[in-house]
Amino acid sequence: MARMPSAQQLSEPFVVKRHGLGTTTTALALGTVVFGVMVALTLGIVVVQAIRGASVREPLEAVWLAWGGTPLILGVGLPILLLVGAITALEERREEDDDDVLLTVDDAGIYLGGEQPRTIPWGQIRGVCRLERHEVNGEGDEIWEPRLVVMLLDESALPRSTRAWGPSCPWPGTHEILGRPLQYDALANAVAQRAPHVQVTNRGRVSDRPPAS
Predict the structure, then answer these.
(1) How much is the pLDDT for 5?
(2) pTM over 0.90
(3) For the CA atoms of 150, 154, 157, 158, what is the dihedral angle to 10 degrees?
(4) Low-confidence spans in the chain with pLDDT less than 50
(5) Largest Cα–Cα distance in the chain?
(6) Cβ-based burial of 209 (10 A; exposed 0-12, middle 13-18, buried ≥19)
(7) What's the pLDDT at 82?
(8) Of the four, 37, 146, 148, 189, which is 20 to 30 A from 54 by CA?
(9) What whole-number distance in Å separates Cα of residue 204 and Cα of residue 109?
(10) How many CA atoms lie within 13 Å of 195's alpha carbon, on the beta-carbon side?
(11) SS3 annotation, 12-81
(12) Integer Cα distance of 163 and 165 in angstroms
């Protein structure tokens, strides 16, 4: 017999955060890996040359002064950047960074992050849907962009344009480098736990263009 979730469990919000190269933690991890590789390479050259009884200077110069001295610049600057990044990461742990929150589903309602963050209480929500909206990107190419829409109107009152259905945001994780896109089933389950009366639908491609005459 399945166990019903307790009130304490339901009070834990369902949160989707940004996990990409733009976050301090990820950048710090990548910088540490790069610096570690550079240190390991240097030690490897020293050990090999010591075993061979050869000069260490020439191979080190070949590595560190390659590409206009880029490795040397990185070797000098990375420790400072890593120190600053570590301090910033510690601060982020102490203070929740709202900029990294893409979506929150909790007892109060739904929070949409992004350029125009907004919290919608359950009393105003008539439905939640995933759809693909026809867009034109920066290069002028026509694309179908997956969106998450919190509908503020009843099904019978929905206008033809999906932009008037309610606030929306790109489907969380879609545009995040190394992101983890939100699974539809996970969203439906999170909403059902807190607002069983709110229907979650997956509508696929929905065109906002007026019908051809």
Answers:
(1) 46
(2) no
(3) 20
(4) 1-9, 21, 213
(5) 85
(6) exposed
(7) 66
(8) 37
(9) 24
(10) 21
(11) CCEEEECCCCCCHHHHHHHHHHHHHHHHHHHHHHHHHHHHHCCCCHHHHHHHHCHHHHHHHHHHHHHHHH
(12) 6
Q: What is the pLDDT of residue 78?
A: 67
Q: For residues 187 and 194, what is the distance between their CA atoms, to the nearest angstrom?
A: 11
Question: Buried b vs exposed e over 106-144: b needs ≥16 C-beta within 10 Å?
Answer: beebbbbbbeeeeebebeebbbbbbbbbeeeeeeeeeee
* CA-based nearest residue to 14, from 151, 185, 190: 190
Residue 114 corresponds to which tokens in the numbers above? 């992004």
How many CB atoms neighbour CB 68 within 10 A? 8
Residue owning tokens 């400072």: 80
Scan for tokens 């550079």, then name that residue: 38
Pairing of strands 127-136, 200-206: parallel
Contact predicate 130/187, CB 8 Å: yes
Closest by Cα among 138, 182, 121, 134 to 161: 134
C-alpha to C-alpha distance for 200 and 210, rounded to whole angstroms: 25
